[in-house]
User: Which sequence fits this backbone?
């Protein structure tokens, strides 16, 4: 095991599953150049622990109730630009690396990584060395920029819907049949079909289901009931 200097590297572990955090703490005890200074279970606790312990490296869970690991990282870096944060994730999200880097994290680790891999990443973070290939990071950032551009475009398209078209879309989300929607909104089946065609055209989608997915993603509707044939 390579030594990084005469002092040990102070590590803070942040994970909402305390059993995972404590298990990682126990595993890292075998790395003689690393010392876990604390294990905390939420973003607010992470901010306080960083102020109290001034750790060299923070291992930050991404999915936590309340403040996410990404937001906690952003706030830590805002108060201390020299802080080194490694994001931990148990989920496969192709855009997470980009979000982590944009928040100021030095890299992303899967929770399934071997302890030796985590320890090595901590050492590299402490030395200020990159955790990921430059091409990997740039590719992730491009994908995130593309996603955000597409989401902004979709939001603009949703704003083009008239109040009546929004009503139709909301009724579609309830799983009501075309006949029920037409009756509830006081329109003929032909008028309803015209509204649906206009909705699909304005949103740039090819089916009612695509329209509903877009509406859910942007908060226009909250749930979709598929008990009826909404795509027919």
Assistant:
């Amino acid at each position: 095991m390579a030594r990084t200097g005469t002092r040990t590297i102070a590590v803070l572990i942040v994970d909402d599953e305390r059993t995972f955090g404590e298990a990682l703490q126990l595993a890292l005890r075998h790395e003689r150049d690393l010392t876990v200074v604390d294990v905390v279970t939420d973003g607010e606790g992470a901010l306080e622990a960083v102020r109290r312990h001034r750790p060299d490296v923070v291992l930050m869970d991404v999915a936590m109730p309340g403040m996410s690991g990404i937001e906690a990282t952003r706030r830590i870096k805002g108060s201390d630009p020299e802080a080194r944060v490694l994001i931990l994730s148990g989920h496969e999200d192709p855009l997470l690396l980009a979000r982590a880097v944009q928040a100021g994290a030095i890299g992303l680790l899967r929770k399934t990584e071997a302890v030796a891999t985590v320890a090595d990443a901590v050492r590299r973070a402490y030395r200020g060395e990159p955790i990921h290939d430059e091409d990997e990071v740039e590719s992730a950032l491009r994908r995130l920029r593309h996603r955000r551009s597409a989401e902004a475009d979709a939001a603009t398209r949703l704003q083009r819907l008239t109040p009546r078209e929004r009503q139709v879309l909301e009724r579609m989300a309830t799983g009501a049949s075309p006949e029920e929607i037409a009756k509830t909104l006081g329109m003929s089946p032909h008028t309803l079909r015209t509204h649906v065609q206009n909705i699909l055209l304005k949103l740039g989608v090819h089916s009612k289901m695509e329209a509903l997915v877009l509406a859910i993603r942007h908060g226009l509707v909250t749930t979709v009931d598929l008990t009826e044939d909404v795509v027919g």
Q: What stands out?
A: The chain is about 55% helix and 10% strand. The longest strand covers residues 34-40. Strands lie at 9-14, 34-40, 57-61, 85-89, 107-110. Residues 1-5, 226-232 have pLDDT under 50 and may be disordered.
